[in-house]
Predict the 3D structure of the following.
Amino acid sequence: MPNDYKVLYRKYRPTTFDEIVGQKYSIEMLKNAVKNDKISHAYIFTGPRGTGKTSTAKIFAKTINCENPKDGIPCGKCNSCINSNNNADIIEIDAASNNGIDSIRELINNVKIAPSYSKYKIYIIDEVHELSNSAFNALLLTLEEPPSHIVFILATTNIEKVPITILSRCQRYDFKKLSNEELITHLKKIAELEKIDISDDAIEEIAYLAEGGCRDALSILNQLYTSNKKIDLDTVLNNYGSISMIQIKNIVDAYLNNQFKEIKDIFDKIEKTSIDYKVFLKKLIDVLFLKAIETKNNNQEAKYLKIKDTIFELNDVINKININVDPFLLIFLILIKGTSENTDAINKIPIQENIEVSKSTEEIIKEPIIEESIPQEEIEQPDKLDRQENQDYKQYIDKLKKVRINNCFAKADKTQLIQNKKSWDQFNEKINGTHQLKPMIMDSIVVLASNEINIVTNTQESIVEMFNQNLEEIEQEYENSIQHPIKFIACTTEEWEKLKKEYIKKLKEKYVYQIMEEPIYSKQIEKEGSNETIEDVFTIFEKNKIEIQ
């Protein structure tokens, strides 16, 4: 027998405009368009996931095909309304799985055919940003001069990826995240209809975790409902790796009152749980933000600045964290850096063994706490610290970067690029998630290659800097993994776009790149009077003809 069970977000999917939650402005505009008989040929609905874009598109399609709409609302009685779910004139396309030029060509050919029995033939294209460039170009021609019986409704969670040429031909409606209050009201209504035994604070926590998405909120409620007779706050916290706001407020209060011991006790308890550090960080930043506003309003400038700086440091943890480090250790160190009580106790904090701290981590947790709390040999080997902090080494990397980019341009090869990209992907897969090099390579992309050099890009400048400081280790690990030696150099995505434009320009001008010799970095050169440097001199000149002062 077929399974008639429906998950909550499907069971309570809106079927009328009045059932759409939290999008009052957009709904009123669409209803007025129907009421005034001013239907555009193309619309685009944009906003976060689970905010009602596709549901609204279906209801709007039903409304504009209704034979007797009243005040912008479908009558629900005509043939078009009754058969709206199986209407051959309402075509839904998932661009994520039909993003090629062939799918759009088929659409364009069918556009010319008149509706079977409705006023309009309506195309709902979900996740439209997934279309390829060629597919967008083909769609553009139809959007430019569509037949009068055609209406396009495009939906996307990523409006930035939709070409401006498409956007300029559509009426745009922005769907906002639902507020916690809107989600709480909606969840309470559904819990009552489904006779779900759930506490108010559990509903509030679900609304918080959903981050403004109605579908996400219902999915969380559904999962908890199917496996628990009664849902309380602890049920939600334990199932979703969350932490109560009471605990977060206790941490913030201890932080603002310089109570080191209280912070330490709370983090000791957290260590034994399975809390998601991203949820923890978000809540911590939310509460600190409210405290920052409060201190600003009360003219407590010193306390406000302290909170503001901490918020920025905590926000950077997500982007700069080294996955070998316990994230709660970083958060803990950031907070106790802002306290002044019992600094001697900080030195006695037990630190996990085998923790490796990258340069980005050192930037997050600034000295002197790291020096006091983590043994020097566990942070980095001395030669790596020299590289990162030595100005001469940074200048050497800058020179090496220019030379390697130049030499890669000189011998760039498209076939080699394809091959090297595959090798890079294989290398990335082989590197374990806990490997110290993983954060530098996992989101880096090979964009140009020769038989000797790979140029890689990354969106984050800090990752690029770390990559170039660890070239030897990356090259050695790559050779061991792929069994083929290659040199690397990294630059930011923004920097690469400029380099690429310059490269294309020079090629058009018939400029010929000449191979340059790579600079050599030697620590011995820095140490004036070292025996190795003098011995190098003796290999060039006769020893008895040199006077050493």
